[in-house]
Each structure stands twice: as structure tokens, then as C-alpha cells.
Amino acid sequence: MHSTTLSGTSAESASCLQWGLIRNITPCFGARLVQEGNRLYFLADRAEFNGSFSDDETLRLDQAFPLIMKQLERMLTTGELDPRSQHSVTLHHNGLTYEADTLGSHGYVYIAIYPQSAVTR
């Protein structure tokens, strides 16, 4: 885990833990999903926002998140995401970019979600 402040700078006393894939992109939503077999579970206390999403981006994230979770579960089933080896997958949906990787962790999938426009800002 990487400790950061909301501005993205490292700090020993930071109260925000970066749970997802570490990306130097703002805004970004990160989470560590729990993997059991080919199922994924989202735990709110293992997730965080870095920066602020617009109301429209927040709505699109809220609507797409369950669909992306199902897609990631399918990728576990097909082996495209493998709990034993690090391999990043990237999905694009409705103006948002979704990155996921197990990081070879045997039980977790780390994600980062950000607006596609944030990459060009």
C-alpha cells in the first residue's frame, strides 16, 4: 500500500491509503477487489478517490461499475486476468478508462478508474 495525501504527494502522516493501481492521474478511483475463484467482491473500506470527478463522471462510474465487475470476472474465467501473474488489462466504457491487474497477488484484483479526458489534461 502506498500512503498519499489527496493531492497525490507522499506523506508519512497521510490519512488516505492508495488501495488501487497507482496512477499519476487526477481524478482517479482506486480499489483492491477481493477475489474468490472467479468472483470479485468490492469492499468500500479498500477503495479511495484521488481528486474530484464531475457529477456526470460520477454518474457514469456508478452506472458502469457493476458491468465492469462482471467483465473482470469473465476475464478471470478465461484466464485473461490471472491471479498468479501480473498482467494489466484496460477497458474503455462511456468516456472512462478501467485498468485492472492482479499483480500476482493470489486473491486480489487492483483497479484504477479515471476519465479518458484526464490523460490528456
Automatic annotation (TrEMBL):
<dbReference type="InterPro" id="IPR038025">
    <property type="entry name" value="CbeA_sf"/>
</dbReference>
<dbReference type="GO" id="GO:0051495">
    <property type="term" value="P:positive regulation of cytoskeleton organization"/>
</dbReference>
<dbReference type="InterPro" id="IPR009320">
    <property type="entry name" value="Antitoxin_CbeA"/>
</dbReference>
<dbReference type="Pfam" id="PF06154">
    <property type="entry name" value="CbeA_antitoxin"/>
</dbReference>
<protein>
    <submittedName>
        <fullName>Mu phage lytic protein YfjZ</fullName>
    </submittedName>
</protein>
